[in-house]
Amino acid sequence: MIRALLLSLLALPAAADEYRFGGSVLTFDGREVVFTNGETLASQFPVDFFRDLTDGITVRAVIMQGLGQVPDTVHVIPPPGYIAVPETLTVEEYGRGVIVIVLEGMS
C-alpha cells in the first residue's frame, strides 16, 4: 500500500501535460497520449494517470511496467463517446508509442 502511494507521488506532473517516473515519460498532447519507455524500477502495481484534455474530456492512462529491460504496456480509457486507437499499446524499452483519442464512430 505504501509502495503504491509512493509511486503515485513520484508520478506528479513535471509540466502541465507531462508526467515523468524514472526514465519513462507520459505526455498528453491534445488528443494524443504519448508514452516513452525508459528505465524505471518496475512495480507490480499499475501506475495510474488521469488528465483533462484541452476540450474538457478526461482520459485515464494505466501503465503496467515490465520487470527489467522488457516492454511496458499502456492502456488508455477515454470517457463515453470516445475511443482510444489503439486502446492498449506495448512499448519496447527505450521505445515510443502514441495512442489517439477520437470520437466514437470516427476511427
Which structural class do you get from the secondary structure elements? mainly beta
Roughly how many Å apart are the termini? 39 Å
- Helix and strand sequence: HEEEEEEEEEE
How would you describe the shape? elongated
Proportion of strand residues: over 45%
Question: What is the radius of gyration?
Answer: 13 Å
Low-pLDDT regions:
1-16
Mean pLDDT rating: 81
Summarize the biggest pleated sheet. 6 strands, antiparallel
**Number of helices, where a helix is a run of at least 4 consecutive DSSP H or I residues:** 1
SSE map:
Blueprint: H1 2-10, E1 13-15, E2 18-21, E3 24-29, E4 32-36, E5 47-52, E6 58-64, E7 72-77, E8 82-85, E9 88-91, E10 96-103
Antiparallel strand pairs: 1-2, 2-3, 3-4, 4-10, 5-6, 6-7, 7-9, 8-10
Features:
8% helix, 1 helix, mainly beta, six-stranded antiparallel beta sheet, 50% strand, four-stranded antiparallel beta sheet, 107 residues, disordered N terminus
Structure description:
The protein is mainly beta and 107 residues long. Helix content is 8%, strand content 50%. The chain is built from one helix and ten strands, in the order αββββββββββ. The strands form two sheets. The chain has a six-stranded antiparallel sheet, with no helix packed on it.
